[in-house]
Amino acid sequence: MSADDVVAAFGRVLNATEEAQPELDALDAVAGDGDHGVTMVLGWRAVVAALEAVTPATPGEALRTAAEAFAGVGGSAGPLWGTALLRAARVVADDGDLAAAAQAAADGVCERGHCLEGERTVVDAMAPAARALAAGGDLAAAAAAAAEGAAATANLVPHRGRAALAPDRARGHVDAGARAAAIFWCAVARERP
Prior knowledge:
By secondary structure, this protein is mainly alpha-helical. The chain is built from nine helices and no strands. Helix 4 (77-95) packs antiparallel against helix 5. The two termini are 22 Å apart.
């Protein structure tokens, strides 16, 4: 994995997220304020713009630049994705292990968001992707695991965010944050979300 690979992956993530914005907003509107798609698009646009303004020499530099750009978006997504990308950058800089970087990203979101897998959050897609990579799977396996984890959130009780205030309304609907993470992994793997 090179810095150029990381930059190209973020470009694909932006395109996929822009396409999915209406879906993400609709999922968020079920029990929230309906702006998750907008926030994610703004975040990935900030990432792509920041990476166009510099020429990162390493994957770690590219991820750090992305982390700083996304963290500035605000809302809950900005700090969570900023933390995830920063934690991944630290691991990639150390040994380049994608599985370890994915796990560090998921762990960072758990710590920053005070959440655990199974609580109907973005982690329910991030953690399965990390496990798929740790088990020797490729990016397609990570994307499939993230998509499956996101889909399973429709049956989970929300413990965090606005959805936790309206668990009955959220029941039967996929968590917008988890769906956004599945879209991320699918775009990275060049798979359809």
